[in-house]
Design goal:
mainly alpha; Arc Repressor Mutant, subunit A; 3 domains; two-stranded antiparallel sheet; 35% helix
Length: 294
């Protein structure tokens, strides 16, 4: 056994050991998978895999042979050198019916060389030359190419509302309301950066006369489970659920502009309801009641 087998990098350790064992056996020895499994602790599956490795690398050659009595056996030839040609081995004589099929072994000489393939016969002079067979043309590319449909551009989220007249007191009240949300919903734990970023939106709600309890209820009701991003959820609710300004708030804002006259608020003399008029008197509903009574 040469070092080419013992140092072979393409064979497993089990295949190298099995090849060494097979080459140590005399000619005609049985090397069936079941007999090898009885001899070694490896399983039949592992031994079969090792035999396939040796056969793939040229150290074994297995063929099916029909005996004179009609039985078919597997003949295994072991080579000392990969690619060597074994001597002609006569078929074994038929054995009694009670014996198992034999798998003879015929090791080849260590320096045997495979016989070269026969050369093609020369073409006689004057004979017509056959044109070479053209190589097959490659398959044409498909007529269409599957292109994924274009995806719609992602719409950016709407900006966070900002108060019209921000004050430090309004900002502190909004920040305190946001920090207090975790008492009512433990999952709404916000960092200082989140509170600083969301405070202008809550200040806008407060500027529009939204009660703190109303804001708290809007931000803490029907929370999703699980809640992965509390700050993103609050930003969405603050932006999309922002209530409109109360009637008259535009007039209050316009009072700060020069050249704009704002009608003051009056209290009704009958029901004490607030209404806008240039002079004190009765609200519209009370004036209607007075005309009906008259």
């Amino acid at each position: 056994m040469g070092n080419h087998l013992a140092q072979h990098r393409g064979l497993s350790l089990a295949a190298i050991g099995l090849a060494a064992h097979i080459q140590s056996l005399p000619a005609g020895a049985r090397i069936g998978i079941k007999r090898l499994a009885e001899r070694f602790p490896e399983s039949e599956t592992r031994i079969a895999a090792a035999l396939r490795e040796l056969e793939a690398h040229g150290y074994l050659h297995r063929s099916r042979v029909r005996l004179t009595d009609g039985r078919i056996i597997t003949r295994t030839v072991s080579y000392n050198q990969p690619g060597a040609t074994a001597h002609t081995v006569t078929a074994p004589q038929p054995r009694p019916k009670h014996s198992k099929p034999a798998a003879p072994l015929a090791p080849a000489p260590p320096h045997a060389v495979a016989a070269p393939a026969p050369a093609p016969p020369p073409t006689p002079a004057g004979a017509p030359q056959r044109p070479p067979t053209p190589a097959p043309e490659p398959a044409p590319p498909p007529a269409y190419v599957s292109v994924p449909p274009p995806t719609a551009p992602r719409t950016p989220p709407p900006p966070l509302p900002q108060p019209y007249a921000p004050t430090e007191e309004l900002r502190r009240t909004a920040a305190a309301l946001l920090a207090d949300l975790r008492r009512h919903a433990p999952r709404l734990v916000l960092s200082e950066n989140d509170i600083h970023a969301l405070a202008p939106g809550v200040a806008t709600w407060l500027e529009r006369d939204a009660h703190p309890d109303t804001i708290r209820h809007t931000l803490t009701t029907d929370l999703p489970v699980p809640l992965k991003h509390p700050a993103k959820l609050l930003r969405h609710r603050i932006t999309t659920l922002l209530p409109p300004p109360l009637p008259g708030a535009q007039d209050v804002a316009a009072h700060a502009r020069p050249g704009v006259v704002v009608i003051p608020l009056q209290n009704c003399d009958t029901c004490d309801r607030a209404f806008r008029a240039a002079a004190p008197g009765h609200c519209r509903d009370c004036r209607t009641d007075l005309h009906t009574a008259a």
